[in-house]
Structures are given as C-alpha cells and as structure tokens.
Amino acid sequence: MKNSSEILEVQQLSIQFKGRRGNVDAVKGISFSVPYGKTLAVVGESGSGKSVTAMACTQLLPKPPICEVSGEIWFEGRNLLALSEEEIRTVRGSGIAYIFQEPSTSLNPVYTIGFQIAEAIHLHIKNPGDVHLRVIELLDLVGIRDPEKRFGAYPHELSGGMQQRVMIAIALACEPKLLIADEPTTALDVTIQKQIMDLLLDLKRKLKMSIILITHNFGIVNGFADEVMVLFRGEVVEFGSVKDVLKTPRHPYTKALIGCIPRLNQKKRRLTTIDHEIVS
Q1: pTM above 0.85, yes or no
Q2: Superfamily of domain 6-95+177-279
C-alpha cells in the first residue's frame, strides 16, 4: 500500500475486452483511491466502465485472452491483481464485498434467504460458530422484521426492497472492510430507494466500513458520499468532493449528468439530455 490512510488505491487501471470484431477499451488508465471510513461515488451512464472497474478489484472479470487487465490495485498492502486465485479468495467477502444490481436475479430462487446468507458465511469463515444465530442477527441488522420467520422465506416471497436488504445482509456476512454497492437502488421506487440508502449510511457508521457507490444517478450521491469520480467512456473526467462537484462542475459531461436530476421547481417540461458530441 502506497498510502496508509487509503484502504484502496487504484493506479493506471486499464481493462480491454477482445472480440471477433476488435478490441474494446472499457477502462483507460484510471487512478483513484478510497480513504478508510469514507465513501466514494463512481458516477456515469451505462457503458462508462463503472462496474468492470469494481469487478476488477477482486479479479471477477473473465481471464485472458477474453479480458486483459493491467495496472495496480492496492488493498491492505497487497496488489490484488498480482494475487493467485487462492489468495484472492481470502479477499472476497471478508475484505471486499459486493451488492450487485437487481436482487431478484442475484438471489437463487430455489433456496431460502436464510440458506443463502448462511452459505456466504460458510464459504468465507473457517470457524463461524452458530451460523443460524448469525443469520438472524444479520437479518435484524438490515431491518428485516421477524427475522426468525423470514429465515425460511424464498426470494419471490419478498418485495424488491426486502430482497435488496437480503443482498446487503449477504454482503455484510463476513464483515468486509470495503463494500462495493453497484446500483443498489435499481428498479426500486423512490421511497424504497431512500430507505436503502439510509440503511447503507447507517451501517457504514456502525461497522466503520468504506464504501464505493456505483450509480448513474447524481440524485442519490449528495448526503451519502464524501467524494465523487465521474467516468465517461472509460476515463475519469472529474474527481472531487461531492459538495464541490455538485456546486461547480467543470466537465460538460458532469454538468449534463447533474442537469438530468429531476427538481420540483424545474420549469422545463423535459429533462436535460446528454449530447455526447459536446462532451467528447
């Protein structure tokens, strides 16, 4: 680790996918860091390189020659890109955990939620103790009422918001130091979105975690993240404190993204659209 105050340091990360029609540079030499106990929001539209950057952190991308990853990703004194498959498994879950998009497709429909949370514990903790009790504690921690009863419920028996809470419980099962939340409010209505974001903020304070929030929506960043990084076509076009970026955005792409936030006092009938020719 180059800086002891940073839990994660990414240096000159490039990601290239190879296909029959040519190569695609998904990420082009980006660098950033996440301080201990802080939240970084990574903002950009679909295809900007947000999710692949997150997946590269624990080697979840396809292996070469399909995908080529270069650069360095430092986490607690180790370059994660240089670790063997066996070594990176010790980082997944207990070091870095994920909340993926669309809980309805991430959860296995044929297993109960209790079983799926317990499975995460068994996979990453050698001597887990009373796993059933731990699952109940996690369900209670993420705000699921009557956790004993919900332990035996199947995903389809829960609402979208409840399913997302289960996904958060799975991510927290091994007490990670860094939580990566990839579009955690996708497909949820506005009220439930706020509940999930408030829950994540509360858990961050209680568990003293660092968080990377991946989103295309600047509207959920304010009040949640400390810093924001804007990605456009695989490159960092803006980086700074959330307050500064929202108040005085410098890049046209950032301005366009902020302009897409709906406002109650907005006089225009249409939201701002992003002109890629202007921001390129």
Answers
A1: yes
A2: P-loop containing nucleotide triphosphate hydrolases (3.40.50.300)
